[in-house]
Specification:
With 191 residues, the protein is mainly alpha-helical. It has one domain. The protein is built from 5 helices and 2 strands. It has a two-stranded antiparallel sheet.
Length: 191
């Protein structure tokens, strides 16, 4: 007989006291690092360094996947859960991401969050309709999050939250500018 107790489920998180602060501090951080990691993945893929012990592309991939999953949950889940907030905290309904809903979500969940066997991994379909293995999807996840983030900005404007929409738009622009610098870095140029 086990002496372990079944963990109790926590109730939903309390409403955000300052959604704009959450956007500026937490969602912005997720977006910035997703876009930078996706671009670093691209740089490493182009360089094809194959240096034993140097696995920067894998680190970039893992980082991009984790930040993407966090943002996909925030944008596409219908209600704040027991351990994450969603767009409902901004008075919006869940946003749709067809590729996330129809395959990317299960791919990220099964192979990123759990140690599944990967030999029979089914490919995912990118936004252009091309099938790819999960490990090749970092740029696609980033591009879809940018699209959904733009939809978030539009939703805020439609809800009359222009100041928050302006903040979200400026966060996206800054994240894109910073991520672009990864592609023009000394490393990207091959030193």
């Amino acid at each position: 007989m086990s002496s372990r107790r079944k963990p109790q489920r926590r109730p939903n998180l309390p409403p955000l006291s300052d959604p704009d602060r959450y956007l500026e501090q937490h969602l912005a951080n997720e977006l910035h690092w997703l876009l930078r990691a996706a671009n670093e993945w691209i740089v490493q893929d182009r360089l094809r360094l194959s240096i034993d012990g140097y696995h920067c592309q894998v680190y970039a991939m893992d980082s991009a996947f984790l930040h993407a999953r966090t943002l996909f949950e925030f944008f596409t889940s219908s209600q704040t859960g027991s351990n994450y907030y969603t767009v409902d905290q901004f008075g919006l309904m869940a946003l749709d991401s067809p590729p996330y809903r129809t395959g990317w979500k299960s791919g990220l969940h099964e192979y990123l969050m759990h140690a599944q066997e990967r030999e029979n991994q089914r490919p995912l379909t990118d936004v252009k309709g091309t099938e790819k293995l999960l490990k090749m999807m970092a740029p696609d996840f980033a591009a879809e999050i940018v699209r959904v983030w733009e939809e978030f900005v539009d939703g805020l404007r439609s809800a009359g939250r222009d100041a928050t929409a302006d903040l979200a738009a400026s966060i996206l622009l800054e994240a894109q500018e910073q991520a672009a610098r990864v592609l023009t870095s000394k490393m990207a140029a091959g030193l």
